[in-house]
Amino acid sequence: MNDADLLRYLINAVQKEGQKKYSELLAPLGITPNQSEVLQVLSKKEPLSLKELGGLLICESKSPSRLVQRLVENGFIYKSQALDDNRKSVLHLTAKGRKLIPDIKEKEDLFNEYNIASLANVIDVKTLISALKFQINGTESQKKIERRINMDLPLN
Q1: Which end of the chain is more exposed for a tag (fewer CB within 10 A), N or C?
Q2: Of 94, 65, 64, residue with least CA distance to 77
């Protein structure tokens, strides 16, 4: 296997294993990592239209409609008409969803501490971040991350 193949497989494996670990941390809350991202984004900036939400989510590259629908069905968010345009619906957290935010943040902090600690003795994390930013330069993912940074929203 050449280095390019190995790098690609390692990146995919790290993503897969990270999602698995984060899923395990969130399981007691009854939500997935992608659902936690939606709830956190809404907790920082609501109401949002489905399109606006999609422009901030790292976990979704397309419309998050199925993800949102599941959160609506589970009572974590609700839809209403936008005040400025009654043809547009916007998303809000319910009391149940808002109550979950501190617990999500706690699990996210544990996951982040694990990630940083596992890398700290192997590589300079700032260098790794720079290399990864370089890899996504000019992509829609880069734009989403910049929007989240500028809004001071968690990246998950």
Answers
A1: N
A2: 94
48 and 90 Cβ atoms separated by less than 8 Å? yes
DSSP conformation letters of 31-92: --HHHHHHHHHHHHS-SB-HHHHHTT-SS-SS--HHHHHHHHHTTSEEEEE-SS-TTSEEEE
Assign 93 to helix, strand or coil.
strand
The C-alpha atoms of residue 7 and residue 4 are separated, in whole angstroms, by 5
Q: Cβ distance 140 to 61 under 8 Å?
A: yes
Residue 92: what are its φ and ψ, rounded to 5°?
-135, 155
Q: What predicted TM-score, i.e. pTM, was given to this entire model? A: 0.87
